[in-house]
């Protein structure tokens, strides 16, 4: 333990004078991360690229106005619960219409039917937007208080402050080589892109660059405020809020700043954020004050005995075998066949390819991953005294080997 304490103290001294510079770096990163990626110059229209600068200006302005006008007001718990019920109902209806739209597109491509659904979704979103600021305020407070309870604060102050915006985050265009599953290039796109356009872009990249590409919906993004995808499951909103907050927190430490250093560091950051988010959410929902928020949440259930995790682990294993044997065409056909099997079992995924696995495999607690990172992190967590110690043990690492050193120490301690 003395060795680990020395490791942490030494790194803390180096961090002290960097905090202000890193904070400014975050702001610059947010402003420029929405710029065009030259790798996709010939595949995208200018108005299809998501602008984080525009998001920051609009969102921070709205948040500021709301804070000023509601400075002395306190949320009434009964009123908030009613608003949450309304939010869940609206989101459930919107999600149902989006699935219907996807299905109509694949089955009939009926333009009039799809336009009618789009109009209905627009009106429902307009109603939902009118209540979001109150919901965001409540979720921010609850997650902040739980982080503070875990002891991850600075003299009673949680930094960065928990700040979220609930709305449909931008889409993410991800590419991977066809002969191996590896997350390569990516760019954020506006969320209103139609499936027909997604397909054109993906096919164009495949034909011109011989690269696997996919445009995906994401659950959130660690801008500031964090973007959080609307969800009928309030417990999931707590989880996503905590997940994105940890990314913001870690940017002040070597671990967070190393997120794009290589695949392993991306896996460590994303999987740690997943673990943290689930832990914070679980602890919130075990608090009797918020028990009602976590009840009657929609859960994804499969009526038959189909096991998604087992199915997807098998799929990933077989795809890797085919690619290792240079059977690229067979691997791609196999992935599409498996997508159809999922559809027959009530699970709709628009496309499964190398890029799909490359993105989802980054979260190593997912059945789409073959990485050992999740099991290593769980071992360290299980041998830590609390969540604070677990995070602090890891926030100073900047390469995979340091993670293995900590894990080996914890394993020997057992």
Summarize the structure.
With 414 residues, this protein is mainly alpha-helical. It has 17 helices and 6 strands.
Describe this structure in words.
The chain contains 17 helices and 6 strands. About 2% of the residues have low confidence.
The coarse overall form would be globular
User: What percentage of amino acids are in beta strands?
Assistant: 5-15%
Q: Span between N and C termini?
A: 13 Å
Q: Tell me the helix content.
A: 55-70%
User: How many β strands by DSSP?
Assistant: 6
Please state how the strands of the largest beta sheet are arranged side by side.
1-6-5
Helix count from the secondary structure assignment:
17
Biggest sheet details: 3 strands, mixed
Helix-strand blueprint:
Elements: H1 2-15, H2 19-32, H3 52-69, H4 77-107, H5 111-129, H6 132-149, E1 164-166, E2 171-177, E3 186-189, H7 195-209, E4 211-216, E5 220-221, E6 226-228, H8 234-250, H9 254-257, H10 263-285, H11 291-294, H12 308-324, H13 328-344, H14 354-360, H15 373-382, H16 387-394, H17 400-413
Parallel strand pairs: 1-6
Antiparallel strand pairs: 2-3, 2-4, 5-6
Helix pairs in contact: 4-5, 4-6, 6-8, 6-10, 8-10, 10-15, 12-13, 15-17
């Amino acid at each position: 333990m003395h060795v680990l304490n020395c490791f942490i103290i030494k790194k803390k001294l180096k961090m002290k004078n960097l905090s202000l510079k890193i904070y400014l770096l975050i702001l610059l990163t947010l402003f420029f991360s929405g710029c065009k990626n030259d790798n996709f110059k010939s595949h995208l229209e200018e108005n299809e690229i998501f602008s984080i600068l525009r998001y920051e200006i609009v969102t921070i302005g709205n948040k500021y106005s709301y804070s000023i006008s509601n400075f002395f007001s306190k949320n009434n718990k009964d009123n908030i619960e009613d608003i949450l019920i309304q939010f869940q109902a609206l989101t459930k209806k919107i999600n149902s219409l989006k699935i219907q739209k996807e299905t109509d597109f694949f089955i009939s491509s009926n333009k009039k039917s799809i336009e009618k659904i789009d109009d209905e979704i627009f009106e429902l979103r307009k109603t939902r937007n009118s209540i979001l600021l109150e919901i965001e305020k409540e979720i921010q407070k609850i997650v902040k208080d739980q982080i503070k309870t875990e002891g991850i604060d600075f003299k009673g102050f949680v930094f960065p402050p928990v700040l979220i915006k609930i709305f449909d985050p931008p889409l993410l265009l991800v590419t991977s080589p066809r002969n191996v599953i590896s997350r390569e290039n990516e760019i954020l796109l506006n969320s209103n892109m139609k499936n027909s356009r997604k397909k054109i872009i993906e096919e164009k990249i495949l034909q011109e660059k011989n690269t696997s590409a996919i445009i995906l919906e994401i659950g959130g993004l660690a801008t500031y405020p964090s973007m959080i995808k609307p969800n009928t499951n309030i417990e999931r909103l707590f989880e996503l809020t905590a997940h994105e907050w940890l990314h913001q927190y870690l940017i002040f430490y070597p671990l967070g700043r190393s997120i794009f250093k290589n695949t392993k560091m991306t896996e460590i950051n994303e999987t740690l954020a997943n673990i943290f988010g689930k832990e914070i959410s679980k602890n919130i929902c075990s608090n009797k004050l918020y028990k009602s928020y976590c009840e009657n949440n929609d859960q994804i259930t499969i009526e038959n005995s189909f096991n998604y995790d087992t199915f997807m682990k098998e799929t990933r294993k077989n795809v890797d075998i085919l690619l290792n044997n240079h059977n690229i065409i067979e691997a791609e056909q196999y992935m599409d066949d498996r997508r159809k099997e999922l559809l027959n079992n009530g699970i709709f995924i628009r496309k499964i390819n190398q890029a799909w696995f490359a993105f989802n495999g980054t979260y190593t607690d997912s059945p789409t991953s073959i990485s050992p990172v999740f099991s290593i992190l769980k071992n360290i967590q299980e041998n830590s005294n609390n969540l604070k110690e677990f995070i602090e043990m890891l926030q100073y690492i900047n390469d995979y080997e340091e993670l293995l050193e900590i894990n080996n120490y914890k394993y020997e301690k057992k």
